[in-house]
Amino acid sequence: MQGIVGAQTAPVVVLKAARVFDGEATHEGWAVRVKGDRIEAAGPAADIATSNAEVVDLGALTLLPGLVEGHSHVLLHAYSETPWNDQVAHEGLALRVARATNHLRLTLMAGFTTIRDLGTEGAGYADVELKQAVEQGIIPGPRMLVATRAIVATGTYAPKGFVPEWTVPQGAQEADGVDSLIRTVRDQIGRGADWIKLYGDYRWGPHAGSHPTFSLEEMKLAVETAKSAGVPVAVHTVTVEGMRRAILAGAETIEHGNEGTPEIFKLMVEHHVALCPTLTAGGGMPKPGETESPAVTRRRAVFKAALDAGVTILSGSDVGTFPHGDNVREIERMVDYGMPNLDALRSATSVAGQVLHMDIGQVKAGMLADLIAVEGDPVKDVEALRRVRFVMKGGVVFKEVERGAAR
């Protein structure tokens, strides 16, 4: 493809590949016609007009929709480098934004063309301006849906551990009750939030583990307020009671769901609530010869219960707790936990597009031209997603196929 990578491509481009995964199934010998930032046509190569178009032959590669990261934190970096508390309390905003620009580039180059970023963790509304920087072409990055500061009940979040006389800024915005919650939800939406994120439970109180924070009535109020502006709500919750309240309150997605039960997953299905499991954030996989930890064994069982119940799964990894650009780890983890390759791939493409209410995740006419090409067939081998050779977002090429890479 001619021109500078990242610059506007020719008005019409036809992409040909050995196979195309369209978000639902794989087709051999297909081509995709892109006009501007949208897909104009997709189907058998013989049926796709090439007149007045630049033709790009991707050879033996697999063309598929750009991947979606359903739960990210671009303003965090791996906890193995710096603990969360130290990032929030000791790293300044300019430093965190500088890191985030690299995180966004790494994410896009890894084939993830859309992210839902669920909280700046003490970095205010920097996600809104990072989104603007991407949209204005100042920095390369995926499409961003942002939640700004996220919302927590007073006294439940962190940083903690300081003397009681100090009022320390928190990693999310505190709000309670009618007046405070309505004002906070409206304020975040007014400042650019695409989603509202609530913390439905957290590690607080005198007893170990997570406990519910907002009451059902408070959560309903927040959801109702957000929906007035057409803004959906995601709820961080790991406990059964926190999940129950989120479901009944009208949340569209539940983040984590670590302690979900068959009964609570049945309720999710009945209320059409999707699960973003963030399995990667639930503990590392054992190395060869090592015994799996009880926590991982428990997450396997819970994830299987969600699959058995037919819960809609949105792929989301909680990246930022581990290095950005390695987002595909979540898709691999879902497969390892028993999800068929095809369903895992759908959860990061077509299902993601539906859950996030966006024209993405499918290779068909009218969809945004967010397309990647990988070496191998990801339906047969999910690790093929690590071999990204071509990235297009909105009809603009950000990674070109290197000579010989399409063979």
How would you characterize this protein structure?
The protein contains eleven helices and 21 strands. It folds into two domains: 12-65 and 363-399, Urease, subunit C, domain 1 (Roll), CATH 2.30.40.10; 67-327, Metal-dependent hydrolases (TIM Barrel). The mean pLDDT is 95. With 407 residues, the protein is an alpha/beta fold. A hairpin with a 2-residue loop joins strand 20 and strand 21. The radius of gyration is 21 Å and the shape is globular. Helix 4 (177-190) runs parallel beside helix 5 (216-228), helix 7 (262-270) runs parallel beside helix 8 and helix 9 packs antiparallel against helix 10 (341-347). The strands form six sheets. A six-stranded mixed sheet has the order 3-2-7-19-20-21, with no helix packed on it.
Write the layout of secondary structure elements.
Layout: E1 12-16, E2 19-21, E3 26-28, E4 30-35, E5 38-44, E6 54-57, E7 62-65, E8 67-72, H1 84-90, H2 93-109, E9 112-117, H3 126-135, E10 143-146, E11 151-152, E12 173-174, H4 177-190, E13 196-199, E14 201-202, E15 211-212, H5 216-228, E16 233-237, H6 240-249, E17 253-256, H7 262-270, E18 274-276, H8 294-309, H9 329-336, H10 341-347, H11 350-355, E19 371-374, E20 388-393, E21 396-399
